[in-house]
Design brief:
This protein has helices at 3-16, 20-26, 33-41, 48-58, 86-109, 129-142, 153-159, 197-212, 220-235, 238-244, 255-265, 269-278, 284-296, 315-325, 331-337, 342-348, and strands spanning 77-78, 163-167, 175-180, 184-190. By secondary structure, the chain is mainly α. A 4-stranded mixed sheet has the order 1-3-4-2, sandwiched between helices.
C-alpha cells in the first residue's frame, strides 16, 4: 500500500475542486472512477503513464505525490463561512496547505526561520470602536509605519512575517486567516472575488484584525464590524481623515474629494464614507443617503475613481530566485517549487548566467 501517494492524490483532487467523477471525466475515461477510488485508498498505485495523466488533470508536478506536507492549519474563520459549500472549503484548505508546504520548504533551504510577534500581545479584550482605533495606533507605532499611506499592504504583512497567499475560489468567499503549525500566521485572499487593489488592501487588513485583535470573546457580527473598522483605521488614521475632510463635521461630501483620498491612501470611497461616519464627521442618515446614491449610479462594485496602486505578494518568488542564484537548488527544483514545468519556468524566468 502507498499511503503517502493516496493521501496526496486526494489532496490534489480536493485542491482542484473535483469529485472522483469530475476527475474521471477530466481524464477522458483513461481510468475508471473505481480505479481512482482504489488509488485514494492506497490499494493500487498508477503506473508512470497514468501518473503523467493525473499530473496534467490536477495541475501538479509529479513530485507533489511524494513530497512531505507537514502543514497543520489552526482554527479557520472564513468570511461569509455559512455560504461556503463544503467542496469549496476543502479546495481552499488544500490550496493553502500546498502553497505553504512549498513556501516553508524554500525558507528551510535558505535557513530562514522567521518568528512572528503580535504587536498587540498582552492587550486586554476589546469590544468597542475606541479600542480598535487605539489598537490600530499601537500597530502602526510598533511596526514603525508612521501615519502616512501604506505603500503596499501585502509587503508590509510579509515583512512582519505574515504569509500572504492569493488563490482562486468562488464568489462566496473573500478571505480567511489562520495560524499554521502553531506559530505561522497566514492570510489568504480570493483573487477572483477581490480583484481591485483597494479591496485587496482592505481585505488583507480585515483578516489581520481577526489574527491579532483580542476579540475572540465577541459574537461574529461584532467581530466583523470591528475588523472592518480596524482595516479602515490602518489605511487612514483619524487625524489624517479629519485633515483631508477639513477637520470638522460635514453636511455632505463630494465625489471629487473622496476620489482624491482614495488615490492617495488606497482605500475605497465607500470605506472612506464608512470611516467618516464612524468618526462622526458625517451623520448616519447622510451615510445612508450616500450609499443609496452609489447603488443608483451602479458604483457599488465599480467606483467612479480607481486606485492606481498595485498589491502583490512577491516574497515566495524572491526566495526561490535567491536560492537558485546561491546554487542551493537546481533549476528543475525551482520549477517544482513554482509548480511549473521546467520549460515554462525557463521561459518565464530571466536566469542570469
Amino acid at each position: 500500500m502507498d499511503s503517502l501517494f493516496a493521501e496526496r492524490l486526494k489532496s490534489a483532487r480536493l485542491m482542484k475542486g473535483y469529485s472522483l467523477q469530475d476527475l474521471e471525466d477530466s481524464l477522458a475515461k483513461k481510468v475508471t472512477r473505481q480505479a481512482l477510488h482504489k488509488y485514494e485508498k492506497g490499494e493500487i498505485t498508477p503506473d508512470s503513464e497514468m501518473l503523467g495523466h493525473l499530473c496534467e488533470a490536477l495541475n501538479v508536478r509529479p513530485d507533489f505525490f511524494y513530497g512531505k506536507n507537514e502543514i497543520e492549519l489552526g482554527e479557520i474563520e472564513f468570511r461569509k463561512l455559512k455560504k461556503l459549500p463544503a467542496r469549496e472549503e476543502y479546495r481552499i484548505i488544500e490550496q493553502t496547505k500546498y502553497y505553504l508546504s512549498r513556501y516553508l520548504e524554500v525558507e528551510q533551504i535558505l535557513g530562514i526561520n522567521p518568528k512572528f510577534e503580535s504587536p498587540l500581545a498582552g492587550l486586554p479584550p476589546i469590544d468597542d470602536p475606541a479600542g480598535v482605533e487605539e489598537a490600530a495606533r499601537i500597530v502602526r507605532e510598533k511596526w514603525e509605519m508612521g501615519n502616512g499611506p501604506i505603500a503596499s499592504v501585502y509587503e508590509l504583512l510579509e515583512d512582519m512575517h505574515i504569509k500572504v497567499l492569493e488563490i482562486e475560489a468562488g464568489d462566496e468567499y473573500d478571505g480567511m486567516q489562520t495560524i499554521v503549525n502553531g506559530s505561522i500566521p497566514v492570510i489568504v485572499i480570493n483573487k477572483l472575488k477581490v480583484r481591485k487593489a483597494d479591496r485587496q488592501r482592505f481585505t488583507a487588513l480585515h483578516e489581520l484584525g481577526h489574527l491579532i485583535l483580542p476579540i475572540k470573546h465577541l459574537p461574529e457580527k461584532k467581530k466583523e464590524a470591528l475588523c472592518h473598522q480596524f482595516a479602515g483605521a490602518m489605511l487612514i488614521p483619524p487625524d489624517h481623515l479629519f485633515r483631508e475632510l477639513g477637520g470638522q463635521k460635514r453636511l455632505r461630501l463630494s465625489m471629487q474629494e473622496l476620489g482624491a483620498i482614495k488615490k492617495e491612501y488606497g482605500i475605497s470611497i465607500q470605506d472612506i464614507v464608512m470611516r467618516a461616519k464612524a468618526l462622526k464627521i458625517i451623520t448616519e442618515n447622510y451615510c445612508g443617503v450616500f450609499f443609496t446614491m452609489m447603488r443608483s449610479m451602479g458604483w457599488k462594485i465599480d467606483e467612479p475613481v480607481d486606485y492606481l496602486g498595485n498589491e502583490a505578494s512577491n516574497r515566495f518568488d524572491q526566495l526561490i530566485y535567491r536560492a537558485l542564484a546561491e546554487e542551493l537548488i537546481s533549476v528543475s527544483k525551482a520549477a517544482s517549487l513554482k509548480n511549473q514545468k521546467l520549460a515554462e519556468f525557463k521561459t518565464q524566468s530571466l536566469l542570469v548566467k
